[in-house]
Amino acid sequence: MDTEKRKIISLFKKNVKGKKADLTKYQSKHDGKEGHWLEAQMNIRANADNLPDLYGYEMKKDAKGKTTFGDWSADYYIFHDKKYKITRDLFLQIFGKPNPKKGGRFSWSGEPCPTIKSFNSFGQKLFVDKNQNILVKYYYSKDQRKNKSKVVPLIMQIDNLIIAHWKKESIKKKLESKFNVKGWFRCLKNKDGVYTSIVFGDPLNFKTWIEGVKTGEVFFDSGMYQGNIRPYSQWRANNIYWDNLITSTY
């Protein structure tokens, strides 16, 4: 066992194990406040650097259902392409869906969000090309919306239209800068919210990760919506995927 791993295990046993998160110091509406509590216990400083959290290891919180690799914006969105002359807001109206609970606010999330397994009802699908780039393509012929001729501009009423594109090298750099140094770890809780153990996984490289994208185990989980300029282009995997990557438990 390397020295860095020993330090992380020691921090966990000293500051986290056997405890429930004390969130009294955090704002009641603070998003991800338990994650911030855990970072503080593990001596992780909040930063925007695309580097591992601690001693070369990336920390992932004990999330329910699915866990995020990162919020990795595409290198290309069609609303940045001058050829099509659409704004981000219009993009959401064309390729997204209104939410009645949010006053009809459009978002590119949920049902319109593309997967790699099949075309969705909005005519969108995720692809990995021969060069390992990731593409979201729109096919007008696969769009099942009854009002598509009114919603989709004439110039976009075609098949094989790229609406988002992640270049291999850019996403490889983001992934491997975080996960391919020493590896990753996660602090686990029991059903009562008490932290009981810490698990580690080996370094994760792009080759392994992109295979997960191809099988659909790693998926795009867009949260883009009107009124917020952030792309919210999350890449995630269900926890069973992460569990299969665990190499040691303490």
Quick overview:
This protein is α+β, with helices and mostly antiparallel strands. It has helices at about 5-15, 35-40, 90-95, 150, 170-180, 205-215, 240-245; strands spanning about 55-60, 65-70, 75, 95-100, 105-110, 120-130, 135-145, 160-165, 185-190, 195-200, 220, 225, 235-240, 245-250.
What does the secondary structure layout of this molecule look like, with pairings?
Layout: H1 3-15, H2 33-41, E1 57-60, E2 66-71, E3 76-77, H3 88-95, E4 97-99, E5 105-108, E6 122-128, E7 134-143, H4 148-151, E8 161-166, H5 168-179, E9 183-189, E10 195-201, H6 206-215, E11 218-222, E12 224-225, E13 233-238, H7 239-243, E14 246-249
Parallel strand pairs: 1-9
Antiparallel strand pairs: 2-13, 3-8, 4-5, 5-12, 6-7, 7-8, 9-10, 10-14, 11-13
